[in-house]
Design a protein that fits this description.
- By secondary structure, the chain is mainly α.
- It has a single domain (2-16, 31-62, 85-252), classed as ADP-ribosylation/Crystallin J1 (ADP-ribosylglycohydrolase fold), CATH 1.10.4080.
- It has 15 helices and no strands.
- It has helices at residues 2-11, 35-48, 53-63, 71-78, 92-95, 98-103, 108-120, 126-143, 148-157, 167-170, 184-192, 197-207, 211-226, 230-238, 242-252.
- Helix 11 crosses helix 12 (197-207).
- The longest helix is centred in the middle third of the chain and has 18 residues, at 126-143.
- It is globular, with a radius of gyration of 16 Å.
- The two termini are 13 Å apart.
Length: 253
């Protein structure tokens, strides 16, 4: 999960100011956590404490406002009664899903069930649910040290993503997309082209588009495959409120 959080933090300053290169200061003073981190921590909290996903996401979103929430999700946070899904296929379902994979401890059935449940409380469109499940599945395969070719085939054959592209090929014309369809396969490819955790994040940023979310999804997969350097982990945790640090530390414990 910390890999996803690091991706979000590093990508935060590039979301609306894309940087189409892998050369940049990794932890710039302007970097901060966004809604991606808030929702990721909320999912972890819900699983560890047996809480409803919708209610927990709602409470965290209200507790940490002004973190870059999407328009429809922002309206959902304003609702006082009930947590009704709104048929979204936005990438919010995929960016918060990494705890579902890590806390399942290798149990694929459990991880995918949590991934689906964490999505449908808001993103109940089939593509929104698929994006969350595909991301969790890739994290599990990465943790099991499956080959990158096996991970690519899983994304193609089970989830129907077209993975016949490279980041260099799509970078020049890649726009700002907030859908799972235009975020999840691209984030998977960023991981597939990497050689360590840091390079995965740098490739994700270089693509442009919704930089913090692409790097978040990429980072969750890359952590499972490579691990995360301790210095990066410590730096990211220092940027989080104490309550959120406690959730992250509790998850790894």
């Amino acid at each position: 999960m910390i890999g996803a959080i690091i991706g979000d933090i590093v990508g935060s300053r590039f979301e609306f100011h894309n940087h189409r290169s892998t050369e940049f200061e990794f932890f710039h003073p302007d970097c901060d956590f966004t809604d991606d981190t808030v929702m990721t921590v909320a999912v972890a909290d819900a699983i560890m404490n047996g809480l409803p996903f919708g209610k927990t996401l709602h409470e965290y979103g209200r507790k940490y406002p002004n973190r870059g929430y999407g328009g429809r999700f922002g309206h959902w946070l304003l609702e006082e009664d009930g947590y009704k899904p709104y048929d979204s296929f936005g990438n919010g379902s995929a960016m918060r899903v990494s705890p579902c994979a890590y806390l399942a401890k290798g149990n694929r059935e459990q991880a995918l069930a949590w991934a689906a449940s964490s999505a449908i409380c808001t993103h109940n469109h089939p593509e929104g649910v698929k994006g969350a499940m595909a991301t969790a599945d890739c994290i599990l395969m990465a943790a099991e040290q499956k080959s990158k070719e096996e991970i690519r085939r899983r994304a193609e054959e089970l989830y129907g993503y077209d993975m016949h592209f490279t980041i260099d090929q799509i970078r020049p014309h890649f726009g700002f997309y907030e859908t799972c369809q235009k975020t999840v396969p691209q984030a998977i490819e960023c991981f597939l082209e990497s050689h360590d955790f840091e390079s995965a994040i740098r490739i994700a940023i270089s693509l442009g588009g919704d930089s913090d979310t692409i790097a978040n999804i990429t980072g969750g997969i890359a952590e499972a495959y490579y691990g995360v350097p301790e210095a990066m982990r410590s730096h990211a945790l220092q940027l989080l409120p104490e309550e959120m640090r406690q959730v992250v530390n509790a998850m790894y414990e």
